[in-house]
Design brief:
By secondary structure, this protein is mainly beta. It is about 0% helix and about 55% strand. Strand 3 (about 15-20) and strand 4 form a beta hairpin. The N and C termini lie close together (about 5 Å).
Length: about 90
């Protein structure tokens, strides 16, 4: 699977976990040169608190486009150490 934004591959892996229709990529597959800080947080009732990264490609910022669960709840261990995408990031095989 590939996660692509602005024709740039942000992450690529054959090892994704599909949870609620979202592919969670291993965090190590994330191309860090396109990742920047975000202090955004949200809460999922069954997965726990999500943290976010923003993307920066060719000078364009995509705020909070990547999320992850640094300490998921017990029923959501499959997403530990993984990241998922939204906000225009296309995920496909």
């Amino acid at each position: 699977m590939k996660a692509v934004w602005k024709d740039i591959v942000i992450a690529e892996s054959d090892d994704t976990e599909l949870v609620e229709g979202n592919h969670y990529f291993p965090e190590a597959s994330l191309k860090r040169e396109y990742v920047t800080f975000s202090n955004h947080r949200t809460i999922c009732p069954w997965k726990g608190q999500a943290s976010y990264y923003s993307l920066l490609v060719d000078g364009e910022l995509n705020s909070d486009a990547v999320w992850y669960y640094p300490d998921p709840k017990p029923g959501a261990e499959a997403v530990r150490g993984r990241v998922a995408f939204w906000k225009g990031v296309k995920v496909h095989a």
